[in-house]
Task: inverse folding
């Protein structure tokens, strides 16, 4: 699904923020990406969701070698990936409904069916009463749920979440994680970048740990309890 | 327009109407279209005038003879009439010649006072059957003192001036078009900068560059058409004013110095094409600007 071979990355002419990353993410896997602040977690995710290019090494995504994939084929790859951005990145002038419908519209789908599916999804994340609300009128937790709904609405095969539990309390975070687990059961590969050790211990996962731009451990961990 | 947009591009994901980036665009485009309309009308009027001068003089020549030899005059007339391609050759009598000179010498002149040259008005069929060089040779043989005038001495500088003015007009239209393109580029870049965050999101969730460009191009088309309509209306009013001034007896003197700005239906059609032209230029410019900017994203 995702394959890195000796990948390095730098911003502009700066130093390498990621070095010699070699890893494989299997279809249907559930991954936590951990590491201290500044270790390069967000940068690694950006490489996967095609916001940045590696400065060296080889990335293979859904079987496509990114170095040789023509630019015009990248949008189709991006549509298979759902991203929950650390800062949500909702579009301010669009309602919650239109924000969540955006990935479908971009893919050329519109109409009544789309609207109903999106409304259904928003109800599922507990925002039935806020379909027409602008992001600015929603609380942080509500915005986060809109962002998550937008990431999953097109049923991506790969879901990337960058600190998706940063803005909510412990119980809220656990509820969100259960949502990801449910998606994972339906076949979506999940990668979650997080700081919260206490949280991830409760879920079975594979752990990718970054330290100073290098991948130090890749371990399979069972949940301590479920 | 919203119906059109639904068919052509779907709802706008970016609030381009409300961001202010294109607020001045219609006014700029209106001014450009106004200037272009006047320049175009001037060019077409000049072109028409030049064609009329040429047509009026095509197939006419004048032969000038020193006065005082009626037998030679008749011989020259006979030679001229026998030349292939010549339709008519008429000797102007003294009264007609004096009338020709009236603008320079004033009326009430006694023809007897002047030793006027004799003029022969020559009409040819204007086609390939007439050979001016051959005629000049035959004329020189019959009367070496005769002068053949084909009027090019007068008309050529006029035609050259008209051509220069037409080139100037075309340059104005091109320059104005370039200025309009530049303002559209800047307005589009402003829009891109204002909505950079939203554009990045669209890009990352898999929007093709053309999808994002569509948002800008329909808005630019709208603004371009709005400006074009305004400029064209103002230009049309101005031209109609010129035409009316040309017809009005009290203003005829003032307007006499101007080329006739009355346009043919074809001319009005050409002017009307400035409207879709402005819209199209706006659309294409915005699209190309956005696509070039997005091409820098990974
Ligand atoms: N846009 C950027 N331009 C230049 N340098 C950057 C940029 N983004 C991140 N960096 C640098 O790259 C390194 C890794 O940053 P990154 O955001 O990937 O860390 P992180 O592990 O996500 O940290 P955190 O847990 O605080 O979110 C840092 O040293 C950071 O300063
Ligand atoms: Mg980060």
Result:
């Amino acid at each position: 699904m995702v394959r890195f071979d000796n990948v390095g990355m730098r911003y502009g002419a700066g130093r390498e923020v990621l070095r010699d990353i070699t890893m494989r993410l299997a279809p249907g896997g559930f991954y936590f990406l951990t590491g201290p602040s500044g270790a390069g977690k967000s940068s690694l995710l950006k490489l996967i969701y095609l916001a940045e290019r590696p400065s060296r090494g080889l990335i293979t995504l859904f079987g496509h070698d990114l170095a040789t994939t023509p630019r015009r084929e990248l949008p189709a790859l991006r549509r298979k990936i759902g991203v929950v951005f650390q800062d949500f990145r909702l579009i301010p002038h669009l309602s919650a409904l239109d924000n969540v419908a955006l990935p479908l519209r971009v893919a050329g789908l519109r109409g009544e069916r789309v609207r109903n599916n999106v409304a259904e999804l928003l109800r599922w994340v507990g925002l039935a009463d806020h379909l027409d609300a602008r992001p600015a009128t929603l609380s942080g937790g509500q915005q986060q749920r809109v962002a998550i709904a937008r990431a999953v609405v097109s049923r991506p095969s790969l879901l990337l979440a960058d600190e998706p539990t940063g803005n909510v309390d412990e119980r809220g975070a656990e509820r969100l994680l259960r949502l990801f687990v449910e998606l994972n059961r339906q076949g979506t590969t999940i990668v979650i970048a997080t700081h919260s050790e206490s949280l991830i211990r409760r879920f079975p996962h594979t752990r990718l740990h970054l330290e100073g731009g290098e991948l130090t451990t890749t371990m399979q961990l069972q949940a301590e309890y479920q | 327009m919203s119906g059109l947009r639904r068919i052509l591009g779907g709802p706008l994901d970016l609030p381009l109407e409300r961001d202010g980036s294109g607020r001045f665009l219609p006014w700029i485009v209106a001014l450009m279209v106004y200037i272009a309309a006047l320049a175009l009308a001037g060019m077409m009027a000049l072109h028409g005038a030049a064609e009329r001068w040429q047509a009026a003089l095509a197939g006419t020549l004048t032969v000038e003879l020193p006065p005082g030899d009626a037998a030679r005059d008749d011989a020259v007339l006979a030679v001229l009439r026998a030349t292939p391609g010549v339709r008519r050759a008429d000797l102007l009598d003294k009264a007609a010649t004096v009338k020709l000179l009236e603008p320079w010498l004033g009326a009430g002149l006694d023809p007897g006072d002047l030793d006027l040259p004799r003029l022969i008005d020559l009409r040819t069929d204007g086609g390939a059957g007439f050979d001016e060089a051959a005629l000049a040779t035959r004329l020189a043989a019959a009367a070496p003192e005769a002068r053949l005038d084909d009027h090019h001495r007068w008309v050529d500088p006029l035609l050259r001036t008209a051509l220069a003015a037409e080139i100037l007009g075309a340059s104005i239209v091109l320059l104005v078009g370039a200025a309009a393109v530049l303002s559209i580029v800047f307005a589009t870049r402003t829009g891109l900068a204002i909505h950079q965050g939203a554009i990045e999101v669209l890009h990352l969730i898999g929007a093709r560059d053309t999808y994002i460009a569509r948002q800008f191009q329909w808005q630019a088309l709208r603004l371009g058409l709005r400006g074009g309509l305004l400029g064209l209306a103002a230009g049309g009013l101005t031209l109609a004013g010129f035409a009316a001034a040309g017809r009005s007896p009290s203003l005829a003197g003032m307007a006499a110095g101007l080329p006739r700005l009355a346009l043919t239906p074809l001319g009005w059609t050409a002017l009307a094409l400035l409207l879709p032209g402005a819209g199209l230029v706006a659309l294409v410019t915005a699209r190309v600007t956005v696509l070039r900017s997005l091409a820098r994203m990974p």
In short: Residues 97 and 131 of chain A are 5 Å apart (CA to CA). The pocket of magnesium ion (ligand 2) is lined by residues A 41-42, 86, 162 (CB under 6 Å).
